[in-house]
Design brief:
The complex is a heterodimer.
Chain A: H1 3-11, H2 14-45, E1 56-63, H3 70-83, E2 87-92, E3 104-107, E4 118-124, H4 128-132, E5 136-139, E6 148-149, H5 150-158, E7 168-172, H6 173-179, E8 189-192, E9 195-203, E10 220-223, E11 225-226, E12 231-236, H7 241-255, E13 259-266, H8 267-274, H9 276-310, H10 312-320, H11 325-362, H12 371-395
Chain B: H1 2-15, H2 17-44, E1 56-60, H3 81-90, E2 95-106, E3 116-123, H4 127-130, E4 135-138, H5 143-147, E5 152-155, H6 157-164, E6 173-176, E7 179-187, E8 210-213, H7 214-219, E9 224-225, E10 229-230, E11 245-246, E12 249-253, H8 260-277, E13 287-290, H9 291-297, H10 303-333, H11 335-343, H12 348-382, H13 396-422, H14 426-431
Parallel strand pairs in B: 3-8, 5-7
Antiparallel strand pairs in B: 1-12, 1-13, 2-3, 2-9, 2-12, 4-7, 5-8, 6-7, 10-11
Helix pairs in contact in B: 1-12, 2-10, 2-12, 2-13, 10-13, 12-13
Chain lengths: 406, 433
Amino acid sequence: MEILPILSTLRRHKITAALLILEIALTCAIVCNAVFLITQRIDRMNMTSGIAEKELIRIRFASIGANDNKYARDQEDIELLRQIPGVTQVASVNQVPFGNSSNNSGIKIDPDQKKSTINATNYYGVNLAETLGTQLVAGRNLRPDEYIDMKTIMSALQAKDDKVIPKTVVITQAMANRLWPGQNPLGKPIYLDQTALYVVGVVKDLVRPSIWDDSMAKYSMILPARVAEGQYLIRTSPGDRERVLKTALEKLKAADPHRVVLNKQVWEDVRTRFFEDDRAMTGLLVGVCVALLVVTALGIVGLGSFWVAQRRRQIGVRRALGATRGNILRYFQTENFLLATIGIVIGMVLAYGINLFLMVHYELPRLPGSYFPIGAFSLWVVGQIAVLGPAMRAAAVPPVVATRAA
Amino acid sequence: MFGYYLDLALRSLKRNRVLTALMVVAIALGIGASMTTLTVLHVLSGDPLPGSSTTLFNPRIDPFSMDGYEPDKPPPEQVTWTDGMNLLHAARADRQALMTGGAVPIQPTLSSLDPFYTDARYTTADFFSMFSVPFLYGRGWNASDDDGKARVVVISKLLNEKLFEGKDSTGQTLRMKDTSFQIVGVLGDWHVNPHFYDLNIGDYAEAEDVFMPLTTSRDMKLPLNGSTDCWGTGGDPEHAENTPCVWLQFWVQITDPAKVEAYKTYLTHYSQEQKTLGRFERPPNVALLNVMQWLDFKKVVPSDVRLQTWLALGFLLVCLVNTVGLMLAKFLRRSAELGVRRALGASRRDVFMQLLIEAGVIGLAGGVGGLLLAYTGLWLVRRQPSSYASLAHLDVTMLLFTFVLALISTICAGLLPAWRACQITPALQLKSQ
């Protein structure tokens, strides 16, 4: 429609129009990047763990006094936990997914390598895979008879005695794909320092306890070492968890009162705790986006009102010459749409620039093209809503204004 | 003249309340968001020990095997037991302390309290004097306690309040792992942020509750906290003294800047000597950073916080562009009034000044609003789960900075509209009336 007259009017308000375009461009650029950051964080928070989260409980104890026999205590505890009605699986483990504290090793695929190929985390504990509910995709899980006490392994390593050191390991699919892309990992060796371990099974997914690089989040191994560190995983049906947790704590406390509880959590709490920083940052980013759009909208309202007031006589003349209210309304809407479009185009370029800066300084991936329409759409909508008030006021200007002396 | 302009500004702002409110709100939002994030950044990148941090150094050497050797890689951040003890006993610096983190099980004598675990630091005698740790009661232990694995502890003010209701507890006993320790000192208020001497515990962790000689903790086999980095066959944490693992932090104090280079040379000589003895395999690779250099090297300020600061500054920019637009609209609407003033003899400069003062008033109002928003923002930050959350408080410097930032940015925003309004030709304005 009437684009040319709009452009010629805007040419007479260069500075104000330019400022509005600049504001829209900046908002668009920041919103595009912020929305991208928000989806990144949401993806992270929804990271799959590969375990039966809805059925798990975690309990961690620390002993208070001098500890005589950790392994005997551990066996007794596991028996007690198994007897609780509703409990299907129990494991005594060294670390838990999303638990933060972790034990990791450098992995080589050739013993003569100078540098390790990847860094992966070590999960220890009899019955760990069965309790966590990891999904086996190839080979088998570790058998109970393969497990050896951690204490024994440590002294064997010191004495360089190969006989008792475990020879088997279960790894994740992500790790197998990274080490031997496109090959069958079963039977292949990996090396922890000079110790060779042969892959007997592959699980679909098992997330690490602590994640400092999301691309390595799934590099986990399950090793046949028996530990007694006072950390228990219990699996039961989702509805039973609160009751089982309560009973378990009572029973374990009664069996050995000489210890304190460090953690007692159902799995949702472990996950919530792990991602709390991401959640806070997401909230903040959403807040900033809303605030930016509100400020921009207020700016459009302010400048729109100014223009309408300035052009009252002009509007009156147009109305007197036969323009309808609808024409006037559409005039201001089109004007805003034009300004927003120019702003959005500049904003895209800016958004790309900001993304380059973030890629260099914060190791973020490239902004996918699909985020540009989000920024564009939100600014078009905000612009149209904001300009509606001033435009309606403009449309309400009576034709009689034209006849009055200025 | 200033008073008159101020009066004019207030009148003009009152005449157009909605537009004025829009401008003030925009500035306040921008300033509030920026000040919130800048304050967090300021607090987190602060000096943990103002005054003495430039004399404290973290000596690093490289005891690793040739496995994974890269010539330009910085040396490890911790030391082995053997090297730590060697450097400690060589005593080449003015003061030195070897330490590691741990957790101790406390068995309170009060029956109303259940046993509990708390964070501990296992260290050597110089720790307290080196880091200027304040004492409420008693003092630290001495080198002979270190050698004798004495059962002595220093406890924090908080723990003293919990166990002894804040009374002087020196000379009393503290039971841990079924053993009695004698309390020799109680700390005063001591907050080190960041927790620079051992970042493995958490960059902004609180200072520990229990301090005891490192040798005692090893003798008692107390649990360790922190990070252990091994090479070769690795090792059993129960016998960490003999393992090829770095797990201890070593700090020295060198008060004379001229001696810093000498200490670095000493570290190179030490590495060379250990290589000759066959203990080290790599060529000497040493580093000696002071506290602030160390924090910079470790990139302690969370990247989320830096990102938030950029975000807030971007937001402030949008708010300022918005204000420029609104101010321009406001000033140009008053063309007629300004034309009359010009015709009556006011120079361009006078009009310019008048408009800038008006911008300043908006800036000041925006600053006050921004300050309130920053207080709210920081309150929200403190409710966040991050370890540094509780540190987010506005200090006097940041308070003044808020007003300066608000004033300067608004006056800058006012420059273009004021200049544009000065360009009005008085005759044209008078004619069209």
